[in-house]
Amino acid sequence: MAKNFGKWLISGPPVLYLIVFFVIPTCIMVLASFRYAGEYGGLAPVLLRDASGAHLNLTLESYQEFFSDFIYSWLFIKTLIYALVTTFFCLLMAYPLALLIARSASKYRDLLVLLVILPFWSNFLIRIYAWMILLGPQSAFSAALNGFLGIFGVGPVRLLFTPFAVVLCLIYVQLPFMVLPLYANLEKHDPALLDAAQDLGANGWQRFWRVTFPLSLPGIYAGIALVFVPVLGIFAVPDILGGTRGIMIGNLIKQEFLEARDWPFGSALSIMLTIGAMIIVGGAALFAGRRRKGDV
Amino acid sequence: MALLEIRNIVRRFGDFTAVDGVSMDIEAGEFFTLLGPSGCGKTTLLRMIAGFDSPQSGEMLLDGRDLASIAPEKRPIHTVFQSYALFPHMTVAENIAFPLRMRKMGKAEIGEKVRQSLEDVRLADRGGRYPGELSGGQRQRVALARALVNRPRLLLLDEPLAALDMKLREQMQLELINLQKEVGITFIYVTHDQTEALALSHRIAVMNGGKVEQLDEPSKIYDSPKNRFVADFIGTCNLIDAEVSVVGEEKMVLQIGGLGEVAAKNPGTTCGAKGILALRPEKVRIAAQLVPGSDENHFKGRVHDFLYMGDVTVYIVEVGEGVHIEALLPNSAAGRPRILAVGDPVEISWRYDAGTFLDG
Predict the structure, then answer these.
(1) Which of A20, A174, B194, B220 allows an S-S link to A227, with CB 3.0 to 4.6 Å?
(2) Top-level CATH class of B4-230?
(3) What are the domain boundaries of chain A?
(4) Measured between alpha carbons, how far is residue A18 from residues A8, A12, A31, A232, B230 in Å?
(5) Chain A hits for B146, Cβ within 8 Å
């Protein structure tokens, strides 16, 4: 009895917190996606009373709207592509970086990790606006790039307000979230395993592919989850850098809530996004779980 | 020609000289042990033979070929690591197949060799398990199987039994001896455990401070230690300061402060030389009353203290002025440990050639 009490004392507050601020709001949003929009925005009442009494005032209209126009599905697919490209390039750049930090002398490691998370010390929006300046037509970066392309008779290209700008900034914003779990994994590898692999005849490349890489898969999965999922819902980056062509599903959801004031449709989009993310991440985790059976 | 010739190997780390001009020849088929306290350079030497580290000077020749010119992954030398270093993401069978796959051997041949290898280490039913699912002893056997599967010229073992409990360690020692006999591969074994070294090896190199103190067969190392360090490090030993007073053809007389004259074997020293008498406790007879033989030293004393060890009792006997000599008494008879109590008068004796006089 006393033992259980102690357990609840410790796990109770976070459970309560999640129920109040996650489970209940999610339920409210699921319900909202089946309701009608109010006349001046917001939501129409759930129960309607008329002569025959009270009856439920729910509808599938929002979901019908989602599937009636391919433009919404396309926005989903486009967002998915942005997220995949971002995750891919984050992984490609973060892996060597994490490996470098993990293999460097222990006295430098903390400093290098600190440098990776240093950007977090300045405001997220300010960093995005910095990219706006960097990619703007007047910037030295744009001038240099266009000057270079001009040699080959190409361009000039516009960088700002393009999908390219969005993905470039997404990679920048999400890179530390890939580096940190990878580093945490790689740093724990027993160096004796690489000695053993070399001792048994493996050259440098084989040591990486057969030992380091498979052992780092849990770190890769964690990094993918941390980069991929947040990108699906992001709206600030495309808002500032994307123009009209770089719009993502997060922008549409934000618009439905704040500008169109169509809460049921915004809720339905959010629910669809959550379900989509769950299917992708859940499927990946299942796949990873099978692969990771051997880890101890 | 010896299988492995080690010539004047020196390895320094900053100001610290880990291996200080070591030379030795290791013969084919030998079970050779590097024995010494931690920091004596034995592991550094082993790592240089494997190729994980390189000497600053000196050379190592395997079958007459300079090892420095062969990359670690190309050397026909495999290592059993102290931590076993089994690949946690591979099954037991995949672990053992690893060195074969690195040599681009055919699938069918790999399968056959792995199966045979698993049988050799009595793990035929464990091939599909992951290392994390095995006991310590089983992991040890997998590590051995993996290192031996493609028959290296030389197997290096870095304290491979250190992580096992005592019972299992003794069992694995027997298995190691048998395995080495069966495969006929040269083993170089590193340990700080002197009983393990004595039990396993054909020859032992006792190392200290980066140098080889003595290189000999186990019985020679134990019975005729070359210096104070070896006598002290291997087993327990009475080390008594002594001075040579009379030198005969085969025998000599030592003068020991507080005790008097003691007969000893003459190792070829001169009169007046100072040194120590190294005397193993089990070579000292002890009883309430003794009839000494003609070749024996004989002293009367008192039991100063004793340690009951189960199989034997160690008596610390005070003879003469402040001279303490340890003697062993096997507890083979019932009630033995109670025969002598602290303060009891006892007599001890030992043959003149039971001890070794060490100069300096």
Answers:
(1) A174
(2) alpha beta
(3) 70-294
(4) 14, 10, 19, 22, 67
(5) 200
Contact criterion met (CB < 8 Å) for A202 and B85:
no
Q: Which helix (H) or strand (E) holds B106?
A: none
The topology (CATH level 3) of B236-359 is OB fold (Dihydrolipoamide Acetyltransferase, E2P) (2.40.50)
* Residues paired with residue A50 on neighbouring β-strands, in sequence order: A53
Does residue B104 belong to the interface with chain A, where contact is any CB pair within 8 Å? Answer: no
CB atoms B89 and A201 under 8 Å: no
- Strands (E) across chain A are located at 47-50, 53-56
Phi-psi sector, B49: left (phi>0), alpha (psi -120 to 50), beta: alpha
**DSSP three-state, residue B34:** strand
Residue B281 identity (one-letter amino acid): P
**How confident is the model over B58-105, as pLDDT tens digits?**
999 999 999 999 999 999 999 999 999 999 999 999 999 999 999 999
Indicate the domain borders of chain B: 4-230, 236-359
In order along its 296 residues, chain A shows pLDDT tens digits of 567 888 888 898 999 999 999 999 999 999 999 999 888 878 888 888 887 878 888 889 899 989 998 999 999 999 999 999 999 999 999 999 999 999 999 899 999 999 999 888 888 899 999 999 999 888 888 888 888 888 888 878 888 898 899 999 999 999 999 999 999 999 999 999 999 999 999 999 999 999 999 999 999 989 998 999 999 989 999 999 988 888 899 999 999 999 888 999 999 999 999 998 899 888 877 877 766 554 43
B90 contacts in A (CB within 8 Å)?
A: 294
Beta-strand relationship, B65-66 and B4-13: unpaired
A215 close to B (CB below 8 A): yes
In this complex, do B88 and A295 lie within 8 Å of one another by their Cβ atoms?
yes
ipTM of the shown complex: 0.83
For residue A85, give the nearest of A203, A204, A171 by alpha carbon: A171
Q: Is A178 on the interface with B (CB under 8 A)?
A: no
A217: closest chain B residue by CA? B89
In angstroms, the separation between the Cα of residue A111 and the nearest Cα of chain B is 25
Task: Confirm if B245 and B261 have CB atoms less than 8 A apart.
Answer: yes
Q: Give the per-residue pLDDT at A296.
A: 38
Q: Distance from first CA to last CA of chain A, Å, rounded? A: 33
Q: Which fold has domain A70-294?
A: MetI-like fold (1.10.3720)
Distance of residue A215 Cα from the nearest chain B Cα, in angstroms: 7
Note the maximum CA span of chain B.
Answer: 76
pLDDT digits (tens, 9 = 90+) for B229-251: 999 999 889 999 999 998 888 88
DSSP code at position B326? E
Closest residue, chain A, to B129 (C-alpha): A294
